[in-house]
Amino acid sequence: MPVVRCKICGITRVEDALAAVEAGADAIGLVFYAKSPRAVTVPQAQAILAALPPFVTTVGLFVDCARSELNAILDVLPLDLLQFHGDESPAACEGFRRPYIKALRVKPGDDIAARIGLYGSAAGVLLDTFVPGVPGGTGEAFDWSLVPQDLSVPIILAGGLTPENVRAAIEQVRPYAVDVSGGVEASKGLKDSDKIHAFVHAVRGA
Q: Which of 6, 9, 65, 93 is the catalytic position?
């Protein structure tokens, strides 16, 4: 089975970013959505990015962000990848000179393959749990059996993943990558280094 990549999202502190790197995470996520308890300011993000060593992918998470605001952030932050977690159309995700992934919230009855097909320009698609009125970070898992096999783009699995369940999730879904936030936290926005290490270890052992 191919190596499954691992992203630790909702990083708000330099020490949490470095803990993720030390554990062997492939990517970290920074949330630019003011309503999130894991939101970061541009100065916070600058400090985190400046502390990272090479070969760690940095992902900026946005929710229906105005194009002018997003461009202003990209002017000062060297983010590698954009993650769109709102109701953005394909056109709204394009044109930022960065690859992007589109988050789709999954619920029973969804035609996941058809929804993914709308975002043909995406580098990957993240599948998260549908909770009304909440764009992500719910800490709740969805029914992994809803994910079709042999989808046309790399799939990033998110939603309620923990060190305890991520191995089973990988074995069932066989995603390209997994994405965790709340499952490795001491409290919202503050990561637990031991949980990060346990999560990455479980991913590598799957």
A: 9
**According to the CATH classification, is domain 5-205 in 2.70.70.10?**
no
Beta-strand ranges (E) seen in the chain are 5-8, 27-31, 57-62, 81-84, 100-106, 124-129, 155-157, 177-180, 185-187, 190-191
* HSE (side-chain half, CA atoms, 13 Å) at 66: 4
Structure tokens at 195: 């949980």
User: Which residue is listed with tokens 């993650």?
Assistant: 83
Q: Is 128 labeled as catalytic in the residue annotation?
A: yes
Residue from 16, 26, 128, 179 carrying the catalytic annotation: 128
Q: What is the pLDDT of residues 123-168, one digit of tens each?
A: 999 999 887 666 666 678 889 999 998 888 999 999 999 999 999 9
Side chain identity at residue 72, one-letter code: A
